[in-house]
Every structure is written in structure tokens, then in C-alpha cells.
Amino acid sequence: MSTERDTLDAAFKKKTSETDALTDDEILALCPAPSGNPANATAASTTSGPPKTIRASVIRWMCSDSEAQKFIDPGGIRLTNYQIGGVPSKTHPGVALDLCSLKIPFPLIFHRCSLPAWLLLLGTEIPFLDLDGCDVGSIAGDVLKVRGDLYMRNGFHSGGVIKFPGAALMVPR
Questions:
Q1: Which end of the chain has a smaller Cβ tally under 10 Å, C or N?
Q2: pLDDT band at 24, cuts 50/70/90?
């Protein structure tokens, strides 16, 4: 794992403006588990105890960088009970997880996570998005394309606006 961690750290620092190394929580979320399960923090993160944390910049990097995507299982990024930190938004007030204009090749499955003030999905394409039980400020999903299902249930809560003008759910039949 240390070689994989070193490779991820070096690639992350090279491709982003971040100077801090990836944390243990971020490595747990992004590296395949020894059992061969998808990149998955579910087993180690339960509803008890404090949530684990991951920076929004790490998630955006994993979703946008082809080298980083080699570490993600096709089953996607699965986070349970995570606090997702935000970065200052250039277009919306407060901090955001900005996934705008990305073609994400794998699902994002966030269960019981706390997201920043904004989840920005403007022009994003993704095969599947699951936000079950999440707490989010607001979601801007103009022209979002989800090739499968979009889940926001089982205790999902938004303290702001949710807008999806021009969005398309393309559920296969």
C-alpha cells in the first residue's frame, strides 16, 4: 500500500495546487480494499463514531484525471459517513464540491455523507449518482446527464435549493 500511496500522493500534488499529502481517510476512500472490493470506505466507516473526511479537490482529481482513475474500481467511489470538504466556489456563494463539465466514467455513491454548501454538477455526465442519506446545502445540476439512476432518498436532506434544469436521466430499458 505504501508504494500505491506514494504514487497517488505524487500524482495528486503534480496535477493539483494542493501541497498536503493524501490523508489516511482519503487513501481508504480511493484505493481498492485488500479483499478486492471497489474503492470503498463503507466497511471501515460506520454510523457510529466521527465521520471520516475527504477534500473536494481529491474527489474532483479522481473524477477528472485519467491517471488517477486507474486506481478507481469500475464500481466507482463509495463513501459512507464522510465529511466532504469544499473549496471556494467561483460561481456560487460558499464552498463547493465542483464536478462541473466532467465526464465521470464510474458511479459516485455517497451514503450518509455531509457535503459542502454546494454540489455543482453543471454539464456533468455520470453513469450513476447515489446521495442516499446525505446532507447537502444546495445542488446545481443544470444540463446534468445521468446514464442510470439518481438517488436522493433514505434521509437525504438539502438545506438550500436543488435545481436540475435541462438535466437528463437516461435509464436503460
A1: C
A2: confident
Long-range Cβ pairs for the range 11-15 (8 Å, 24+): 11/65, 11/67, 11/68, 12/58, 12/61, 12/68, 15/61, 15/65, 15/67, 15/68
Measured at the CA of 155, the angle between CA 114 and CA 44, to 5 degrees, comes to 55
Q: Look over the chain and give the mean of its residue pLDDT values, rounded to a whole number.
A: 86
Q: Measuring CA to CA, which residue among 151, 144, 148, 146 is closest to residue 166?
A: 144
111 vs 42: which has the higher pLDDT: 111
Name residues whose C-beta falls within 8 Å of residue 57's C-beta, 6 or more positions apart in sequence. 16, 18, 87
